[in-house]
Amino acid sequence: MPVEEAVMAGVFTPCLISSVGESPRLGDPLVDEYLRFTAARVRPNSLVAQSFDLKVFFTVVAKPPQQVEVADVLGFIEEQRAPRRGGNVVRLVDGEAGLAASTIKRRLATISSFYDYLLLRGICDRNPVPRSINARHRGHRGSPLVRAPKKMPRVLLPEEVVALTSALRTDRDRAMISLMVHAGLRRCEVLGLRFGDVHIGDRRVFIADGKGGHQRLVPVVSAFFTQLASYLSAERPSDAPSAGEDHVFVVLKGPTRGRPLTAAGLDQVLAGARGRAGLTHATCHELRHTCFTRLREAGMALEAIQAQAGHASIETTRIYLHLSNDWLAGEYQQAMAILDNWHDEISGEPS
């Protein structure tokens, strides 16, 4: 059934279509209009995520946007929490068989933003996504629709970092991992690095397209530049069709030799090294968390870590206070020493 006939019949079956240089489309005029609007507001990866979130929602609900009600949203939440793969597989971290609460919350945020747009346009008279449940008084937030636990990020122990880096097979891979574990770069920032961004004389790299479009100039350990020089002189293809591209890190062999390395390629490199090192965890983001945790343990100021990480808010950086092994223990011991002295003075006992 063509999309137009399906909409007229009260059925909307989304089909995600992505074309180079164009906004994604799902087949509904309002949804496609919203995606064109939001393309100017968010980063490309966020646009892809929002497109997929809307596709999943309207696949489950199977209604045109104007006909969606609160009950449909609540039914969508229930469906997303239902067991996947027959209920035989659960996540070890929380024992749940459905999608992670953080994923469901993100999808609800996307849906809510879409209906806020329709409200602004005057197409809908209310947002079917409830802000909360049991908000008894105006101004009270109530209970969230989905409560996602706030988990501490995992970091690697020093010996795990040594094992991982020892398992890497090329200087290209060592340089990429060094940027994450010693400078805290995100995966996309490593892959997006271009030759003009590498400031060898200053021992720094320029992040031209960080999260949220923010740019920053960060210092990097000298070992990275040594690894980079070895990679460029002995490993990087010079005769491949795409070798002249400005990207620093490219594929070394195979049919895509010389082309910029992809996120899947970097994940494959890390998975191979992780397996050879006998590690059960070591993702790109865990390497980033490990970097900032160790910097905090070494006494680096929280504001300096914020600048190195590219965090828009210092509140995001505060997590490394709790990941750091010595900060909380040191603060506690200092406070207890004061309290012990105070107790001795009150009781008249010698300190």
TrEMBL record:
Ranges for domain Tyr recombinase: 151-333
UniProtKB keywords: DNA recombination, DNA-binding
Keyword Magnesium carried by entry: no
Ranges for domain Core-binding (CB): 25-119
Gene Ontology annotations of biological process type: DNA integration; DNA recombination
Molecular function GO labels: DNA binding
Protein name as it appears in the record: Site-specific recombinase XerD
